[in-house]
Amino acid sequence: MTDWWQRPLQELDREQWEALCDGCAKCCLHKLEDEDSGEVFYTKVRCRLLQEDNCQCTDYSRRSVLVPNCIQLEQGNVDELDWLPSTCAYRLRAAGEPLPDWHYLVSGSRETVHNAGVSIRGRAISDEYVHPDGYDEHIVTWVE
Ligand code: SF4
Ligand code: SF4
């Protein structure tokens, strides 16, 4: 039997689409782009709306209003967002790859993404405490 998350992205309904997220919160980190090369660098500076202990957005329904540069992942843009981490469930499924063992849909636990060291829990800093001009001091290499 095929689980719903093994089906192509375009066959998922809205609820399934939302449920595909692994909860890593890496996409809630601020990123810097090299103007010349276009290369994207992740920083450990996170959006202030993120609750870091569970990596959930504290105001998900109003996120696009409260944080205008919060990216809304949609069926139509996931292929264009090549800065998404290689572990991102949307990126994996868009490429036809299976979900990893630590994904909660596979493991049955929301904790496994954290236990596997994939999420940002415990290693980010809120953007309330970092001036945007200083983001480059917080570039990290643990997001691939
Ligand atoms: S990077 Fe992908 S899987 Fe991780 S929180 Fe963001 S959308 Fe969800
Ligand atoms: S508004 Fe919510 S979903 Fe968007 S970047 Fe901030 S914490 Fe993440």
TrEMBL record:
InterPro entries the record matches: Puta_zinc/iron-chelating_dom, UCP006173
Organism domain of life: Bacteria
Signal peptide span: none
Residue stretches in coiled coil: none
Sequence similarity: Belongs to the UPF0260 family.
HAMAP family noted in UniProt: UPF0260 (MF_00676)
PANTHER family, per database record: UPF0260 PROTEIN YCGN
Protein name: UPF0260 protein EY643_11080
Organism in which the protein naturally occurs: Halioglobus maricola
Lineage per the UniProt record: Bacteria, Pseudomonadati, Pseudomonadota, Gammaproteobacteria, Cellvibrionales
